[in-house]
């Protein structure tokens, strides 16, 4: 099967590796780079668990081929926190508000919401619900996820003020 | 849920892409744009192209241009790039509203408008917009370039007038004059899911009378189309609640749904009625 050597930046670090051309970005991040924070659920774009940021925009890692990330910058859940000691405001708010139970959907929730809050720093609860409508939480913890997001948005607005 | 093996091509110029397409189309070669329909179809093994020609590396294809009374959408314009502020007049507001109904945020950042048209899913919102407003597609191949009108472009369930060696090189939509009224409604079982029925209505009303009307229906028949019998009913008359109800009922009677889902005609009628009411600016319970 044909492979290509690709170079890309993931969470600020430059990587070069071989990728089978049919491999999607999610498998490349997990299998080749060992970044298992990105979760793979449905692998056909429905569940949202594998959402990562490609050049800052949320995308499904199962619907982009690894070779398409050549020369691009990827941010995964491992790259959201500003330092090893600190959490991203969304991560801190998810902890404080029980925004996760099993944690399977969490990486996709966080990356989706990271982009959403950049575009929409002062959302309504309804807007948050629409933003995560493509991210399935089988623990059905949506209320606490929405509460966490509202708190993170507040914290991020205050930090920016 | 992994795509079957294929060969991957990443051309750097459009000429190179067209040459690859001409060479590989007979060998099950296909264009890869946003990939938000094609890649899952490959994962589900319902699509098995042997060659993918990825156009994402081609420069200049992600342009939105306004001029000559038209909006031109390039082949790499993502759904998320269609925003009210980038398109003047009522068309901007209309497209902005429609965009919000297309899948979810992380799909809209990647999927392309032209890709949706080439895919021609009967439930596609952009296909409904093009059919209703009379968009024009540009097809390009090594053989040259041609324009395809909306009524010729959609040829059936996920079928278009594009030849295998043709790249959908752009879409042109007519801008809407200030004061043009419109309404869009769709019903889907879950947020971002495929529409069960969708309707777009565009109307020109002067001195309380309908001068022109376009009523489009999507997700019901094998392709989106206008409903001329219902449109004709409105012309020259005041858009009252009674008239709009009558037009929606007429529309329903002219539909030929592709399945025998008993809810489909009622859903279609309801979406048309609501789109009509929004366009006319009246409440219609």
TrEMBL record, chain A:
It holds the Pfam family Fer2. One of its GO terms (molecular function) is oxidoreductase activity. InterPro entries: 2Fe-2S-bd, 2Fe-2S-bd_dom_sf, 2Fe-2S_ferredoxin-like_sf, 2Fe-2S_ferredoxin-type, 2Fe2S_fd_BS, Beta-grasp_dom_sf, Diverse_Oxidoreductases. CDD domains: fer2. Keywords: 2Fe-2S, Iron, Iron-sulfur, Metal-binding, Oxidoreductase. The keyword Transmembrane does not apply. This is (2Fe-2S)-binding protein.
TrEMBL record, chain B:
It holds the Pfam family CO_deh_flav_C. Signal peptide: none annotated. Residues 1-178 form the FAD-binding PCMH-type domain. It comes from the Bacteria. PROSITE patterns: FAD_PCMH. The keyword Oxidoreductase applies. Transmembrane segments: none annotated. Gene3D superfamilies: 3.30.465.10, CO dehydrogenase flavoprotein, C-terminal domain (3.30.390.50), Uridine Diphospho-n-acetylenolpyruvylglucosamine Reductase, domain 2 (3.30.43.10). Keywords: FAD, Flavoprotein, Oxidoreductase. One of its GO terms (molecular function) is FAD binding. This is FAD binding domain-containing protein. It comes from Roseomonas indoligenes.
């Amino acid at each position: 099967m044909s492979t290509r050597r690709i170079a890309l930046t993931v969470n600020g670090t430059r990587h070069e590796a071989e990728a089978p051309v049919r491999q999607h970005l999610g498998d490349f991040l997990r299998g080749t780079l060992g970044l298992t924070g990105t979760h793979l659920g449905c692998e056909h774009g429905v569940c949202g668990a594998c959402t990562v940021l490609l050049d800052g925009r949320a995308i499904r890692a199962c619907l982009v081929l690894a070779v398409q990330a050549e020369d691009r910058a990827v941010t995964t859940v491992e790259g959201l926190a500003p330092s090893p000691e600190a959490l991203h405001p969304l991560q801190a708010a998810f902890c404080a508000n029980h925004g996760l139970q099993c944690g399977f959907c969490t990486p996709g929730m966080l990356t989706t919401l990271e982009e959403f809050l950049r575009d929409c720093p002062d959302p309504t609860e309804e807007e948050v619900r629409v933003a995560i409508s493509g991210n399935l939480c089988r623990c059905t913890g949506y209320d606490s996820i929405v509460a966490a997001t509202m708190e993170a948005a507040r914290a991020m607005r205050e930090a920016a003020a | 849920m992994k795509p079957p093996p294929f060969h991957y091509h990443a051309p750097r110029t459009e000429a190179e892409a067209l040459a690859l397409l001409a060479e590989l189309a007979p060998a099950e070669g296909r264009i890869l744009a946003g990939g938000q329909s094609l890649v899952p179809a490959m994962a589900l093994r319902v699509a098995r192209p042997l060659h993918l020609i990825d156009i994402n590396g081609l420069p200049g294809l992600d342009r939105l241009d306004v001029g000559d009374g038209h909006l031109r959408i390039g082949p790499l314009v993502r759904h998320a790039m269609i925003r009210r502020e980038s398109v003047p007049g009522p068309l901007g507001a209309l497209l902005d509203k429609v965009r919000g109904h297309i899948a979810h945020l992380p799909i809209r950042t990647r999927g392309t408008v032209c890709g949706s048209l080439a895919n021609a899913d009967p439930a596609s919102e952009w296909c409904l917009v093009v059919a209703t407003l009379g968009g024009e597609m540009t097809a390009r191949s090594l053989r040259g370039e041609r324009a395809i009108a909306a009524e010729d472009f959609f040829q059936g369930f996920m079928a278009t007038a594009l030849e295998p060696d043709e790249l959908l090189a752009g879409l042109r939509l007519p801008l809407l004059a200030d004061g043009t009224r419109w309404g869009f409604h769709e019903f889907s079982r879950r947020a971002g899911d495929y529409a069960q029925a969708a309707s777009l209505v565009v109307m020109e009303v002067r001195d309380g009378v309908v001068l022109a009307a376009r009523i489009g229906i999507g997700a019901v028949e094998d392709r989106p189309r206008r409903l001329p019998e219902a449109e004709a009913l409105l012309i020259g008359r005041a858009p009252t609640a009674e008239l709009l109800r009558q037009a929606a009922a007429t529309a329903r009677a002219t539909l030929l749904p592709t399945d025998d889902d008993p809810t489909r005609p009622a859903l279609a009628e309801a979406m048309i009625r609501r789109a009509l009411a929004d366009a006319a600016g009246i409440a219609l319970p």
